């Protein structure tokens, strides 16, 4: 991704970084090095493990700057999400010291990693460093970074649900879910292989995108610690989303993940698409999109309880509890997620987690104006999770997704929702026992 030619915040200097670091020098022992192990030499690199993501690619451009500031080489390993999870499981189960900084999904992995004792406690560092400005992070992102009263990660990338639509087909985006349904049904022309709506429908993968519909109808995955997916609000949300894909969506919707749904809209075969705002560049790239001149962006339409899109930290940084370079790892976090760097990277079109970046016009200039307005609005009203907040997230999503599939196939949603609700209630009891063990 090329550097933004517009003037941005001045780069950090060794002197300014030293001023920032001074405030945590005395508190560095809060996380400390793992007991009983010697300090590594200056030749030992700081090892950062992450996913191959636009944020990782963007930050890698600036790593030489950090290496100069810290006086130590940085080794970055970028993997697929599955490879990254497998690597963490192998290395951290063995208390391996060859990971210092961890890029991870707070909503998918933090509870489990915290339960396993793999994450260093960052509470004293983030709250004791005035220059880091912990309160500047979006509230929902800060909440997801905290487990058991301890800050265990720092958010770096956020995403919200967005409505992608064809402005050549509708004069303005639908304001309500009723409008979305009516317009989607009207524009569907199966004979011409054109669909009013496309979205994820695969049992596990659709749960996160369905969450915004669930919230708009007044439901949630859990309510007061108990399953919420059998309640009337959830059943209505299941039925709505199922009908939308069944009657206005493409065939084979129950097999559609992001990789299958997104190209249908990008190739001009659908009028509306709801998915994460972070994928917007796919529709502006003429190499993969035929709608770059006709796509527009809006918030997810409102339901009976208003517009309630998810607003989540999709990726965060953490420090391995087994790292022998925890002080240096923390300095990488405070550099990579500091106010200056977040402003730089958001100006490159990668949505960050700081309120200051979202309120600065320069950092929003790289986004299409209607998308920037939608993102900003959703960051203010959004819900801080898009999946059940449990240890075994994958299993929970499988249970929650069962009624979604039933709705798409035209089955009895209330009956399947009752069964799934009972299964999820039992799962929550077992999951909590596991968490407390």
From TrEMBL:
InterPro entries: Bact_solute-bd_prot1 (IPR050490), SBP (IPR006059), TAT_signal (IPR006311). Keywords: Sugar transport, Transport. The keyword Transport applies. Pfam families: SBP_bac_1. SUPFAM superfamilies: Periplasmic binding protein-like II. It comes from the Bacteria. PANTHER family: ARABINOSE-BINDING PROTEIN-RELATED, DIACETYLCHITOBIOSE BINDING PROTEIN DASA. This is Multiple sugar transport system substrate-binding protein.
């Amino acid at each position: 991704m090329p550097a933004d030619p517009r003037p941005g915040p001045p780069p950090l200097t060794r002197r300014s970084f030293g001023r920032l670091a001074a405030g945590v020098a005395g508190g560095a022992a809060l996380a400390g090095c793992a007991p009983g192990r010697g300090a590594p030499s200056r030749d030992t690199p700081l090892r950062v493990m992450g996913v191959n993501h636009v944020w990782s690619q963007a930050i890698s451009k600036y790593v030489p700057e950090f290496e100069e500031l810290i006086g130590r080489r940085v080794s970055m390993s970028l993997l697929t999400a599955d490879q990254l999870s497998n690597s963490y499981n192998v290395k951290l189960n063995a208390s391996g010291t060859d990971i210092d900084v961890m890029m991870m999904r707070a909503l998918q992995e933090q509870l489990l990693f915290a339960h396993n004792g793999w994450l260093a406690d960052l509470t004293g560092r983030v709250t004791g460093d005035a220059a880091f400005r912990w309160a500047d992070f979006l509230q929902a992102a800060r909440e997801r970074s905290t487990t058991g009263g301890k800050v265990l990660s720092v958010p770096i990338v956020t995403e919200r649900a967005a409505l992608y639509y064809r402005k050549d087909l509708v004069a303005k985006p639908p304001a309500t879910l009723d409008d979305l349904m009516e317009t989607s049904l009207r524009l569907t022309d199966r004979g011409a292989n054109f669909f009013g709506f496309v979205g994820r429908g695969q049992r596990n993968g659709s749960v996160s995108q369905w969450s915004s519909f669930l919230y708009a109808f007044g439901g949630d995955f859990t309510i007061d610690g108990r399953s919420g997916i059998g309640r009337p609000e959830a059943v209505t949300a299941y039925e709505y989303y199922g009908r939308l894909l069944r009657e206005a969506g493409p065939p084979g919707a129950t097999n559609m993940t992001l990789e299958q749904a997104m190209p249908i809209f990008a190739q001009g075969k659908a009028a509306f698409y709801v998915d994460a705002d972070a994928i917007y560049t796919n529709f502006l790239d003429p190499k993969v999109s035929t709608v770059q001149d006709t796509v527009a962006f809006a918030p997810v339409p409102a339901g009976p309880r208003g517009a309630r899109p998810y607003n989540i930290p999709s990726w965060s940084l953490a420090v391995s509890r087994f790292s022998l370079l925890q002080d240096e790892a923390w300095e990488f976090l405070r550099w990579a997620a500091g106010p200056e760097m977040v402003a730089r990277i958001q100006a490159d079109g990668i949505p960050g987690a700081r309120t200051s970046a979202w309120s600065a016009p320069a950092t929003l200039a790289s986004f299409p104006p209607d998308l920037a307005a939608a993102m900003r609005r959703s960051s203010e009203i959004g819900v801080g999770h898009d999946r059940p907040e449990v240890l075994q997230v994958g299993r929970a999503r499988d249970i929650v997704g069962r009624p979604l599939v039933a709705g798409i196939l035209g089955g009895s949603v209330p009956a399947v929702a009752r069964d799934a609700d009972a299964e999820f209630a039992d799962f929550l009891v077992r999951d909590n026992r596991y968490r407390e063990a």
